[in-house]
Amino acid sequence: QVQLVESGGGLVRAGGSLRLSCTASGRSFIINVMGWYRQTPGKQRELVAAVTSGSSTNYADSVKGRFTISRDDAKNTVYLQMNSLKPEDTAVYFCNANINQRGAPWNYWGQGTQVTVSS
Protein backbone atom coordinates (compact mmCIF):
# COMPACT_ATOMS: atom_id res chain seq x y z
CA GLN A 1 0.00 0.00 0.00
CA VAL A 2 1.01 3.58 -0.67
CA GLN A 3 -0.32 6.53 1.28
CA LEU A 4 -0.63 10.08 0.00
CA VAL A 5 -0.63 12.83 2.60
CA GLU A 6 -1.57 16.35 1.57
CA SER A 7 -0.97 19.66 3.26
CA GLY A 8 -1.11 23.37 2.56
CA GLY A 9 -4.79 24.11 2.07
CA GLY A 10 -6.54 26.95 3.83
CA LEU A 11 -8.35 30.26 3.51
CA VAL A 12 -6.91 33.05 1.40
CA ARG A 13 -8.20 36.26 -0.14
CA ALA A 14 -8.60 36.63 -3.87
CA GLY A 15 -5.27 37.43 -5.47
CA GLY A 16 -3.37 35.55 -2.82
CA SER A 17 -1.25 32.43 -3.01
CA LEU A 18 -1.15 28.96 -1.50
CA ARG A 19 1.19 26.03 -1.92
CA LEU A 20 -0.10 22.48 -1.68
CA SER A 21 2.16 19.52 -0.98
CA CYS A 22 1.55 15.81 -1.30
CA THR A 23 3.97 13.14 -0.13
CA ALA A 24 3.76 9.47 -1.00
CA SER A 25 4.97 6.84 1.45
CA GLY A 26 5.12 3.07 1.34
CA ARG A 27 7.42 0.27 0.26
CA SER A 28 9.09 -0.35 -3.07
CA PHE A 29 7.22 1.82 -5.50
CA ILE A 30 7.93 3.99 -8.51
CA ILE A 31 5.82 7.06 -9.15
CA ASN A 32 4.78 7.60 -12.73
CA VAL A 33 2.33 10.49 -12.88
CA MET A 34 1.37 12.74 -9.99
CA GLY A 35 -1.39 15.26 -10.18
CA TRP A 36 -3.89 17.47 -8.44
CA TYR A 37 -7.63 17.34 -8.92
CA ARG A 38 -10.35 19.45 -7.36
CA GLN A 39 -14.00 19.00 -6.60
CA THR A 40 -16.86 21.23 -5.52
CA PRO A 41 -20.23 20.05 -4.23
CA GLY A 42 -22.43 18.62 -6.96
CA LYS A 43 -19.68 18.61 -9.56
CA GLN A 44 -17.34 15.98 -10.88
CA ARG A 45 -13.73 15.90 -9.82
CA GLU A 46 -11.61 17.71 -12.40
CA LEU A 47 -7.95 17.66 -13.26
CA VAL A 48 -6.06 20.78 -12.22
CA ALA A 49 -2.51 19.82 -13.12
CA ALA A 50 -0.33 16.76 -13.58
CA VAL A 51 3.37 16.03 -13.96
CA THR A 52 4.98 12.92 -15.39
CA SER A 53 8.16 11.17 -14.31
CA GLY A 54 9.84 12.99 -17.19
CA SER A 55 8.62 16.32 -15.82
CA SER A 56 6.10 16.94 -18.60
CA THR A 57 3.22 18.98 -17.26
CA ASN A 58 -0.43 19.40 -18.12
CA TYR A 59 -2.78 22.10 -16.80
CA ALA A 60 -6.46 22.85 -16.91
CA ASP A 61 -7.10 25.92 -19.05
CA SER A 62 -8.62 27.70 -16.06
CA VAL A 63 -5.34 27.62 -14.10
CA LYS A 64 -2.74 28.08 -16.83
CA GLY A 65 -0.39 30.92 -16.03
CA ARG A 66 -1.46 30.98 -12.37
CA PHE A 67 -0.66 27.50 -11.02
CA THR A 68 2.62 25.60 -11.24
CA ILE A 69 3.04 21.90 -10.54
CA SER A 70 6.40 20.41 -9.67
CA ARG A 71 7.76 17.23 -8.12
CA ASP A 72 10.72 16.22 -5.99
CA ASP A 73 11.37 12.54 -6.65
CA ALA A 74 13.92 12.30 -3.84
CA LYS A 75 11.11 13.17 -1.43
CA ASN A 76 8.28 11.44 -3.34
CA THR A 77 6.50 14.77 -3.19
CA VAL A 78 4.46 16.83 -5.62
CA TYR A 79 3.72 20.52 -5.14
CA LEU A 80 1.10 22.85 -6.50
CA GLN A 81 1.95 26.52 -6.30
CA MET A 82 -1.25 28.50 -6.70
CA ASN A 83 -0.96 32.23 -7.40
CA SER A 84 -3.52 34.89 -8.25
CA LEU A 85 -6.21 32.78 -6.65
CA LYS A 86 -9.83 33.44 -7.54
CA PRO A 87 -13.03 32.61 -5.64
CA GLU A 88 -13.82 30.03 -8.32
CA ASP A 89 -10.70 28.12 -7.29
CA THR A 90 -12.47 27.25 -4.05
CA ALA A 91 -12.70 23.46 -3.83
CA VAL A 92 -11.38 20.38 -2.13
CA TYR A 93 -8.07 19.55 -3.76
CA PHE A 94 -7.04 15.91 -4.07
CA CYS A 95 -3.60 14.55 -4.78
CA ASN A 96 -3.42 11.63 -7.21
CA ALA A 97 -0.55 9.32 -8.01
CA ASN A 98 -0.16 6.61 -10.61
CA ILE A 99 2.35 4.23 -9.11
CA ASN A 100 4.13 1.12 -10.27
CA GLN A 101 4.36 -1.36 -7.43
CA ARG A 102 5.20 -5.04 -7.62
CA GLY A 103 5.17 -4.84 -11.40
CA ALA A 104 1.63 -3.45 -11.70
CA PRO A 105 0.16 0.05 -11.96
CA TRP A 106 -1.90 1.35 -9.07
CA ASN A 107 -3.85 4.57 -8.69
CA TYR A 108 -3.94 6.30 -5.32
CA TRP A 109 -5.77 9.32 -3.93
CA GLY A 110 -5.06 11.58 -0.99
CA GLN A 111 -7.70 12.49 1.55
CA GLY A 112 -8.24 15.98 0.15
CA THR A 113 -7.45 19.44 1.43
CA GLN A 114 -9.84 22.39 1.43
CA VAL A 115 -8.89 25.56 -0.41
CA THR A 116 -11.19 28.53 0.13
CA VAL A 117 -10.69 31.82 -1.69
CA SER A 118 -12.69 34.76 -0.41
CA SER A 119 -13.64 37.69 -2.59
Please give a structural write-up.
The chain is mostly beta strands. Helix content is 0%, strand content 62%. The protein is built from no helices and eleven strands. Strands 2, 4, 5, 6, 9, 10 and 11 form a seven-stranded mixed sheet that branches. Strand 7 and strand 8 form a beta hairpin. The chain is elongated and about 45 Å long.
Determine the mean pLDDT.
Answer: 96
The tally of beta strands, per DSSP, is 11
Helix content: under 10%
Outline the biggest β-sheet. Answer: 7 strands, mixed
**Which segments are poorly predicted (pLDDT under 50) over 5 or more consecutive residues?**
none
Number of helices: 0
Strand-pairing-aware structural class: mainly beta
Give the overall shape, derived from the CA principal axes: elongated
Alpha-carbon Rg, integer: 14 Å
Strand content: over 45%
Please provide the ordered H/E string of secondary-structure elements: EEEEEEEEEEE
How widely separated are the two ends? 40 Å
Topology of helices and strands:
Layout: E1 2-7, E2 10-13, E3 18-26, E4 29-39, E5 46-51, E6 57-59, E7 67-72, E8 77-82, E9 91-101, E10 104-109, E11 113-118
Parallel strand pairs: 2-11
Antiparallel strand pairs: 1-3, 3-8, 4-5, 4-9, 5-6, 7-8, 9-10, 9-11
